[in-house]
Amino acid sequence: MGTWTLADIPWDKFDPARIDPEVLRLVKAASVVEHNGRDYARYLMEVFPDDPEFHGVACQWAVEEVQHGQALARWAKLADPGFDFDKAFADFSSQIKLPTGVDTSVRGSRVGELIARCIVEVGTSSYYSALGAGTEEPVLREICRRIASDEFRHYKMFYDHMKRYAERDHIGFWRRIWVALGRIGESEDDELAYAYYTTNHSGQGDYDRKRYINAYMSRAYLFYRPSHLQRAIAMILKAVGIRPGDRTLAVMARGLYTFLRVRRIQMARAGA
C-alpha cells in the first residue's frame, strides 16, 4: 500500500481565508488528471504484458495516483462546495482517451516508454513541490507535500525499471533525448488544457485547446522557483544518461526560470 491515506490529511485545519482562487482553478484541473491513473495503468499492462514484476508496481502506482485525485478533489470541494468533481471527471475521461488494445509502446520501445514515464514524474513532483511552497492554505500545502513525495518515489520506480530494460533493449543516446523532449512537449497537449476547461469553464463556450492551455500554464508557471527547476533538470538529464555538475545545473535552472517567466507573461496575455 501507499505511504499515506486520506485519513492522514489534517482536514480540520482547512482555512477558507487562505484560499487563492487561481490556485483553486489549478487544483480542480489536477484532480481529474490524477484520478485518471487507472487508464494509464491499463495501457502500461498492455505494453508490458509479460512482466508480472512491473505489473505489480504499476497497479500500486495507479492506486496512489487515484488517491492524489481524491485528495485534491476533496480539498477543491471544501474550497468550492459547488464543484461537481464526478461530472467533471466523467466529461474529462470521455474526451481524453489513451491508446487501448496495443502491444507496443507509442514511444517505440519499452525503454522509451519508461523514459517518458520518468519525465511525467519529473513534471508532477516539481509541480506539486512548487504549488505546495506557493500556497498559504495549510491543508493544501500538506496534500501537495505528500503528493510530491509520492511522485519522487514514482520517478525512482520507473527509472529503476528503465535501467532493467536498458540492459537488454538498448536505445541510443539521441533516441533517449528525442523521447524525453517529445514527452516534455506534450505538456501543452489536450490533457491539461481540457482538464482546466472542464473543471473551470465547462458550459461557458466551446473548448479551445490553445486558449485553455495558455490559461492553465500561465497560472502554473507562476509558482516555480529556480530550486524546483534545478532538481527537475537533474532528474530529466539522469533519465537520459547525463550527469552534469551542480554549477551547470544552477545555470540551466536560472535560464529556464527566466524563460518560464517570459513564457508565462506571453501565455497570460494570449489566454486572457
Q: Which key terms come to mind for this protein?
A:
272 residues, mainly alpha, Ribonucleotide Reductase, subunit A, 72% helix, 0% strand, globular
Q: How many β strands by DSSP?
A: 0
Q: Give the uncertain stretches in residue-range form.
A: none
Briefly note the CATH topology name.
Answer: Ribonucleotide Reductase, subunit A
CATH 4th-level superfamily: Ribonucleotide Reductase, subunit A
The fraction of residues in strands falls at: under 5%
Radius of gyration: 18 Å
Note the gap between the termini. 43 Å
Instruction: Report the CATH C-level class.
Output: Mainly Alpha
- The total count of helices amounts to 11
- Major pleated sheet: none
Going by CATH, the architecture would be: Orthogonal Bundle
Shape designation:
globular
Mean pLDDT over the residues: 93
